[in-house]
Amino acid sequence: MWSPLNKIVILLFAANLLSGCAGVVGSSTPTRYYLVDPVEYPSASVKAVRPLSIEIISLHIPQYLQRFHIATRSSKSQLDFSESNQWGENLGKNLLRTMARNLSALLSTMDIGTPLNRSASSPDYRVQIHVEQFEQESNNKVKLVARWQLSGRPQSGPSGMFNAELQGEETITEKNYEQMVSEMRQLYGKLSERIAETIIAQEK
């Protein structure tokens, strides 16, 4: 038989336990999801002199960027991953689709093929893209390092290897992931312009 005192102690313990659990649930941070969206370019952007067919053969990102948790750098060699700020889809697929839409706007063509959306046309140019770094660094600025290989039809000129190292102008305020992703969008738009310019150069 439980004495009245034992029952009171057990009831108090259970109440404290339930209160602690409710506190943990109530204090949890909601998860926010982000995408790197296409850029809206001004009408004076890069333009092709004729309709082109482009095939993005592949777009590779480092393994550490394949996680859904958004990566930032707290030092040159240390990565941090946010539990409550994540990508809305696989970042590689997001960047591939966004690159296709950016190039479509820059080159004034709807004929952009990707591994996710094949084109029935024979491409004028093929491009392979390797994103080597794309995150906020310890200086609170976003950095994008990429290289790409361009190849075309024999009559379009030789293939070439190109690279770009871009850094955002804005200093990201602490844990402001919305600002960070917005800056990533702008930098990725600039990379798209660089790639479009190398394609246009082959036409001259």
Describe the structure.
The protein has 204 residues and is of the alpha/beta class. It has 2 domains: 1-30; 32-202, ABC-type transport auxiliary lipoprotein component (Rossmann fold), CATH 3.40.50. The chain has helices spanning 4-26, 91-107, 177-202, and strands at residues 32-34, 54-60, 69-73, 79-87, 112-113, 125-136, 142-152, 160-167. Strands 5-2-6-7-8 form a 5-stranded mixed beta sheet, covered by helices on one side. The chain has a 3-stranded mixed beta sheet with strand order 1-4-3, with helices on one face.
Output the keywords.
five-stranded mixed β-sheet, elongated, alpha/beta
- Output mean pLDDT: 87
Distance between the termini: 96 Å
Spatial strand arrangement across the major sheet: 5-2-6-7-8
Strand content: 25-35%
- CATH class of the largest domain reads Alpha Beta
How does the major sheet shape up?
Answer: 5 strands, mixed
Number of strands: 8
Order of helices and strands: HEEEEHEEEEH
CATH topology description of the largest domain: Rossmann fold
Number of helices: 3
Alpha-beta content class? alpha/beta
How would you name the CATH homologous superfamily of the largest domain? Answer: ABC-type transport auxiliary lipoprotein component
User: What is the approximate shape?
Assistant: elongated
Radius of gyration: 24 Å
Q: Just name the CATH architecture of the largest domain.
A: 3-Layer(aba) Sandwich
State the helical fraction. Answer: 25-40%
Domain tally: 2
Write down the oligomeric state. Answer: single chain
Uncertain spans = 21-26
